[in-house]
Design a protein that fits this description.
Elements: H1 5-10, H2 30-41, H3 44-59, E1 69-74, H4 76-85, E2 91-97, H5 106-110, E3 116-121, H6 129-141, E4 146-151, H7 167-185
Parallel strand pairs: 1-2, 2-3, 3-4
Amino acid sequence: MSATWPRSWRRRAFVVAVPDLYHGKIVTEPNEAQKMVMMIGGNIDKAAREIIGALETVKAMPNVDPKKLGIMGFCVGGMMTFVVASRYADLGAVVPFYPGGYDPTPEAVAQVNAPVLAFFGRKDDSIPMEQVDKIEKLYRAAGKDYTAKVYDAGHAFINPDHGMGNEQAAAEAWPLAVNFLKEKLT
């Protein structure tokens, strides 16, 4: 996402925190990016603590209703969105986009209190459709408020900046995500 993305949310009357799980490191090569994603995947607990810390910071702000916190993430951030939802009870909405690597247990799903609107690409090699189906079955079995949207698109379909974007999928998914957050958090 571009640097203007958080400002676009502020215009919608949301307070936004963007935790830097990469700690200032910027890469341009796909192999280096994959290494950084693997670094986070190898230390999920640390990443979850950092995200929860950001949520606690936002929650403590005087202009924030602590009962109206949401979380959204993309790729490894989408996976972390699910993980944090199972560890942080004070969320009002959860929106993961193409959360590659997410492999929940029934116990983790049982801890999720917030409604979830998840977005997947049918052609996304990082999260096969069998995994998408497994996630949905676990959330349904636990009686959770869970909706999955699957598009005929690959990974990172919402982002046109790197050649993997899918304009049609993005045009449908983005307004759904925005409206879901508005409905649940405002």
